[in-house]
Amino acid sequence: MEKILQIQREHFQTGATRPASARREALDSLRRGIKQHEQALLEALKEDLGKSATEAYMTEIGLALSEIRYVKRHLKRWMRPQRKASPLTNFPARSKVTCEPYGVVLIIAPWNYPFLLLISPLIGALAAGNCCVLKPSELAPATAAAVTRMMEETFPREYVAIVNGGVEESQALLDQDFDYIFYTGSPAVGRIVMEKAARHLTPVTLELGGKSPVVVTRSANLRTAARRIVFGKFLNAGQTCIAPDYVLCEQSVHEPFVRMLREELTAMYGPRPLDNPDYGKIINRRHFDRLCLLMDKAKVAAGGETQPERLRIAPTILTGVVPTDAVMQEEIFGPLLPVLSVRDDEEAFRFIQARPHPLALYLFTSDKAVEKRFMTGLEFGGGCVNDVISHIVPHNLPFGGVGQSGMGAYHGHDSFLTFSHRKAIVRRGTWPDIPLRYPPYRDWKERAVRWLF
Ligand code: NAD
User: Fold this and answer.
1) Probe residue for ligand 1, chosen from 60, 113, 162, 170 as the CB with the greatest number of ligand atoms within 8 Å
2) For the chain, which domains are there?
3) Does the annotation mark 241 as catalytic?
């Protein structure tokens, strides 16, 4: 690892990764690499997570390709130095901000979108002119192997290197002196990453998780809400960081809403979802067992079936759930959807306010006043009104958490800024050189300084 870091630092110091042309070429190579390995990547995602080709393309490969296109289109403008006004106290001067690459950056990815969450930050890091070390998740081994082959054929190691392994390798990487660390994963490991980064004073972005609530109010279009929530929750078998974790539904519409959830489940996945080839699997036995323990059989309103040998859990709706239930104590990260009944939107507001800031918040309502109260009165990473998940799609929106759900943001221009240091430069003219600031100080100088400030 020390060797990789050393050759990358040497490569970075040659300046080869800085010109716009080199950055564009790197993005082109990445796009070609993805296209050439697309089939192998789709197969790997099927093997690791049971993702259908449509879902894998829609949520991983397609998103990465379209982000490359977007970044390439805007890169020249983003790289341009920004002129700033200069204050009179600096006269004569010109001021500007330039975006400079950090140097050698480390990107650590989780297993749930094992391709996208490695490649999407990489796009920003390359666009900003950095060298990169990638650490895929060991829990999605087929994808890690496919991405490794792709990267080794696409980039020399001094530009983009990939290190495989588990906790030990990840920690050994974190012990190195990187210039930037970009971590996606659980809040627990996020703390370890930040502690390790602190030793070298390395800046970090932490893309974490947590329990993302959905609020369904009495003024919501219930049919649309049910359809969109079922889609967003059971995508990737619920193993999505911004999946709706639980629903807070107003009492007065609880019953019809749960009925519609059931109907939409059947419409999307059929009467036997476990046999549906479009429906994904749980990543491993440990998570499968964890989810089974969270499922209180007495509260199952739909689903509940499991196939331990195939690591499958049917899309499951739980009703009558109370805040003290096990399923409400941790991020579910699987296909269980608890629906809690609340008296009104005010109770839902206070429920969310009393808990850590979520990564995402979703609100279904047609009441503008309720919308304003939730969107401006609560802290959360990002979210949607009358939809779930779709705030991750536009490349021109920042994506990231706040508080327990993370720090920093990326995607599109925000990725470019995340992986760039914004350097301030003042270019002073040499004439006139007004002597105000130079000693010896006199009364007239002080009066002038006071006036100027
Ligand atoms: P994971 O277990 O695959 O861990 C992520 C990475 O951290 C892996 O590369 C792993 O090798 C490394 N790692 C694990 N333990 C470590 C340790 N003790 N020290 C150093 N490195 C270690 O993935 P996960 O953490 O189970 O991912 C799931 C979590 O990630 C959920 O909380 C989810 O919400 C969150 N998540 C967030 C986003 C986001 O964009 N904000 C996206 C996906 C997942």
Assistant:
1) 170
2) 2-208+402-425 (3.40.605.10), 213-392 (3.40.309.10)
3) yes
Among this protein's residues, is 207 annotated catalytic? yes
pLDDT in tens, 414-443: 999 999 999 999 999 999 999 999 999 999
pLDDT of 453 > 90? The answer is no
392 within 8 A of 372, measured Cβ to Cβ: no
Distance in angstroms (rounded) separating the CA atoms of residues 230 and 364: 14
Q: What pTM was estimated for this model as a whole?
A: 0.97
Alpha-carbon distance of 278 to 274, in angstroms, equals: 9
CA-based radius of gyration for the chain? 25
134 lines ligand 1 (CB under 6 A): no
Q: How many CB atoms lie within 10 A of CB 404?
A: 16
- Indicate which residue of 55, 67, 158, 207 is catalytic: 207
pLDDT in tens, 6-50: 999 999 999 999 999 999 999 999 999 999 999 999 999 999 999
Nearest residue CA, atom 40 of ligand 1? 207
The span from the CA of 363 to the CA of 353, in Å, is 14
